[in-house]
């Protein structure tokens, strides 16, 4: 695929291929393309506006991210889900995020604190609305959830760690969207504690809460019965 170019202002202009990649990836992560769904190239071309050859490149790229399965001559399909895979993803997320938390809490400055506070404010606002029964913005809620956890580890000092965590988090998020898993007051309180721990630089307690947070999310998602 072609590389992105920039406008005179410095803002990147996405190529058709990169735009299609991001849209397809988001549709898989947010459950609009469901597990096991056949990905017909002609239909994708009509939906995402990319050529057949570009779409093959995109689907192979997504296959390398374990979001798509290549079926040889039979084409591609959205990767399936399973209890075992969810538990593996959650364990890897915890391994990466717990390490990054400790590094970030030790190195974070006032700008980092500002990112954490701002990200938590947006997430807490959405969580209050959802606890009140408004579930119209579930995708935005999960985007803010992602932003908060990324903010917490954003001072870890490793771009590779941040990017790897983001990829794993997306796979974890996909399971939450499939199960429509929202734990209400429990998750909101855990987020608040992690926010407070960040400002107090209490990495030990934040790690304990993170483990409870992720493991609780897994069990809640499995309890819906939508993942087998």
Q: How would you describe what is shown here?
A:
The protein is mostly helical. The chain has two domains: 5-78, Arc Repressor Mutant, subunit A (Orthogonal Bundle), CATH 1.10.10; 83-223, Four Helix Bundle (Hemerythrin (Met), subunit A). The protein has helices at 16-29, 41-48, 52-64, 83-107, 110-131, 138-153, 159-179, 185-200, 203-223; strands at residues 5-6, 12-13, 68-70, 76-78. Strands 1-2 form a two-stranded antiparallel ribbon. It has a two-stranded antiparallel ribbon with strand order 3-4. It starts with a strand and ends in a 5-residue tail after the last helix.
Largest pleated sheet: 2 strands, antiparallel
- What is the distance, rounded to the nearest whole angstrom, between the alpha carbons of the first and last residues? 36 Å
Mean pLDDT: 91
* Proportion of residues in helical segments: 55-70%
In short:
The protein is mainly alpha-helical. It is built from nine helices and four strands. The chain folds into two domains: 74 residues, Winged helix-like DNA-binding domain superfamily/Winged helix DNA-binding domain (Arc Repressor Mutant, subunit A); 141 residues, Four Helix Bundle (Hemerythrin (Met), subunit A) (Up-down Bundle), CATH 1.20.120.530.
Question: Secondary-structure map with pairings?
Answer:
Layout: E1 5-6, E2 12-13, H1 16-29, H2 41-48, H3 52-64, E3 68-70, E4 76-78, H4 83-107, H5 110-131, H6 138-153, H7 159-179, H8 185-200, H9 203-223
Antiparallel strand pairs: 1-2, 3-4
What attributes characterize this protein structure?
228 residues; mainly alpha; Arc Repressor Mutant, subunit A; Four Helix Bundle (Hemerythrin (Met), subunit A); 2 domains; two-stranded antiparallel sheet; two-stranded antiparallel ribbon; 9 helices; 4 strands; 4% strand; disordered N terminus
């Amino acid at each position: 695929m072609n590389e992105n170019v920039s406008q005179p202002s410095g803002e990147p202009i996405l190529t058709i291929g990169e735009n299609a990649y991001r849209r397809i990836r988001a549709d898989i992560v947010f459950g609009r393309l469901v597990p096991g769904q056949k990905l017909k190239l002609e239909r994708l071309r009509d939906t995402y506006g990319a050529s057949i050859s570009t779409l093959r490149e995109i689907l192979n790229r997504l296959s390398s991210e374990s979001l798509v399965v290549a079926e040889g001559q039979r084409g591609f399909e959205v990767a399936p889900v399973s209890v075992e895979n969810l538990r593996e993803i959650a364990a890897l997320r915890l391994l990466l995020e717990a390490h990054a938390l400790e590094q970030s809490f030790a190195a974070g400055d006032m700008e980092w604190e500002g990112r954490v506070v701002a990200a938590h404010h947006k997430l807490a606002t959405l969580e209050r609305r959802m606890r009140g029964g408004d579930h119209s913005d579930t995708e935005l809620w999960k985007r803010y959830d992602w932003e908060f956890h990324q903010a917490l580890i954003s001072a870890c000092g490793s771009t590779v760690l941040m990017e790897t965590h983001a990829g794993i988090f997306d796979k974890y998020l996909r399971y939450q969207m499939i199960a429509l898993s929202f734990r209400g007051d429990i998750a909101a309180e855990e987020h608040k504690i992690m926010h407070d721990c960040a400002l107090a630089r209490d990495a030990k307690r934040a790690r304990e809460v993170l483990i409870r947070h992720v493991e609780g999310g897994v069990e809640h998602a499995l309890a819906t019965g939508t993942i087998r």
